[in-house]
């Protein structure tokens, strides 16, 4: 099959490898996150939509997350398995797992498109997102970044044209997103035909059950993390509506949409930060997988230390921004067109809801790193506890005592309790990598 070797993953310095893989991955995920956020910025600054557009955007967002959950399950799981296979010199498993992942993405995308009907971009979103980590596992993180970036540039250029010039409103944002995703998907298909370490042939494309059973569990944490996020978002959304209606200000009809709109914006900023966190951790998956497959646990341990320190730095910078510049952040999303209650609630929301960003980034990185080690069960359990037990549980419980503020407290409380569990797992992981 004439594959090129990925042995440099075992020999090159960890710092160089982390920069080579993590930086493009971070940029790719940031660009993917910006698809929806850019739409929301343009929608919010359209005077005829305003905060109503922001609120509507937040309601539709969970549908996109479902498609993303399936995409990252297939893509991240395949990426980890391919890297481990290449490290163990099982190249036949590597190319067949990629071929089956492509087929799974297409099948799942078609099913979701049929279910969603009006959200026809789902098959494109899934394919582009799932192929991204697979391209990284082939040793081309920069191409993975470039393909996503190209689609985002198209989206950013077309958004203002369709929304403001053509006056298409939210439909214009959707059309711009679809066209951007088409470009990303086309570039991903081109790359699959020109892979470096792996060559795909006719025999690659089949639903190889033996391999699917091995790489899907490695991506199940990514899937459950995204799906459980929908559950947490639904709980937070319902509590926001319920207790917002009981608030003396937001219970008034003219201000009723503010809590939902503002919380949606704060979640979008959180999504940006978590995209950086996830990008750094996901960028390490091919490196960790290859070295574990090659029996180099010492390098896997060293990379874990670098990753955790980097996550702390990202969380600290994000915390500083939300605590010092909340008014400037909310201003990006059209606060000038809103009442003083909108800005005041946004400042409170940013400062309370995101006050444990440092722990949130460390927790997320721990989940993903465990996944790259093949510890799918531990990774999945931690993720589910964070999003479902703590995330949903406290979103439902705390408002009973603190009203609308209880919704905001649910996030930091969940992150603190999850970190206690993550710290124990981190310590155990270090011991196992000796």
Helices and strands, with pairings:
Blueprint: H1 8-11, H2 14-44, H3 50-87, H4 91-116, H5 122-137, H6 141-165, H7 170-192, H8 209-244, H9 258-283, H10 285-293, H11 297-324, H12 326-332, H13 340-353, H14 357-372, H15 376-397, H16 399-402, H17 404-432
Helix pairs in contact: 2-3, 2-5, 2-6, 2-7, 2-9, 3-4, 3-5, 3-8, 3-9, 3-10, 4-5, 5-6, 5-7, 6-7, 8-14, 8-15, 9-11, 9-13, 9-14, 10-11, 10-14, 11-14, 12-13, 14-15, 14-17, 15-17
Task: Provide a brief overview of the structure.
The protein has 434 residues and is an all-alpha fold.
**What's the mean pLDDT score?**
82
Q: What is the N-to-C succession of helices and strands?
A: HHHHHHHHHHHHHHHHH
Category from helices, strands and their pairing: mainly alpha
Distance between the termini: 35 Å
Instruction: Count the beta strands.
Output: 0
> For the CA atoms, what is the radius of gyration?
21 Å
Sum up the overall morphology in one term: globular
* Structure annotation, total helices: 17
Q: Let me know the largest β-sheet.
A: none
Uncertain spans: 47-51
- The helicity comes to over 70%
State which percent range the strand residues make up: under 5%
Counted up, domains total 1
């Amino acid at each position: 099959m004439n594959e090129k070797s990925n042995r440099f993953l075992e020999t090159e310095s960890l710092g160089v490898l982390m920069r080579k893989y993590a930086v493009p991955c971070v940029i790719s995920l940031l660009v993917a996150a910006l698809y929806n956020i850019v739409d929301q910025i343009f929608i919010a600054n359209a005077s005829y939509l305003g905060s109503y557009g922001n609120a509507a955007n937040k309601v539709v967002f969970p549908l996109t997350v479902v498609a993303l959950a399936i995409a990252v399950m297939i893509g991240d799981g395949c990426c980890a398995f391919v890297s481990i296979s290449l490290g163990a010199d099982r190249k036949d498993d590597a190319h067949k797992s990629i071929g089956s992942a492509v087929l799974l993405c297409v099948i799942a995308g078609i099913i979701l498109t049929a279910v969603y009907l009006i959200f026809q971009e789902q098959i494109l979103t899934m394919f582009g997102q799932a192929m991204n980590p697979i391209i990284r596992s082939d040793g081309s993180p920069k191409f993975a970044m470039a393909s996503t970036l190209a689609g985002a540039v198209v989206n950013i250029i077309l958004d203002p044209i369709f929304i403001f010039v053509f006056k298409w409103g939210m439909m214009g944002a959707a059309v711009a997103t679809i066209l951007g995703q088409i470009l990303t998907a086309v570039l991903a298909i081109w790359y699959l035909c020109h892979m470096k370490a792996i060559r795909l042939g006719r025999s690659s494309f089949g639903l190889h059950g033996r391999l699917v059973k091995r790489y899907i569990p490695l991506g199940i944490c990514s899937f459950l993390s995204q799906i459980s996020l929908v559950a947490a978002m639904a709980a937070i959304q319902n509590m926001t509506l319920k207790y917002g209606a009981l608030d003396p200000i937001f219970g008034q009809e003219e201000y009723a949409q503010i809590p939902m709109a503002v919380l949606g914006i704060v979640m979008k900023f959180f999504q940006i930060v978590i995209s950086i966190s996830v990008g750094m951790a996901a960028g390490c998956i091919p490196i960790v997988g290859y070295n574990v497959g090659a029996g180099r646990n010492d390098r896997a341990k060293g990379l874990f230390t670098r990753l955790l320190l980097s996550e702390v730095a990202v969380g600290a910078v994000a915390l500083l921004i939300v605590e010092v510049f909340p008014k400037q952040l909310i201003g990006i999303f059209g606060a000038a067109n809103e009442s003083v209650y909108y800005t005041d609630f946004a400042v409170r929301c940013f400062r309370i809801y995101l006050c444990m960003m440092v722990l949130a980034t460390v927790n997320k990185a721990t989940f993903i790193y465990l996944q790259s080690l093949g510890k799918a069960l531990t990774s999945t359990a931690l993720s589910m506890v964070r999003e479902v037990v703590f995330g949903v549980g406290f979103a439902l419980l705390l408002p009973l005592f603190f009203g609308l503020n209880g919704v905001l407290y649910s996030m930091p409380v969940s992150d603190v309790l999850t970190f206690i569990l993550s710290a124990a797992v981190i310590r155990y992981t270090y011991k196992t990598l000796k």
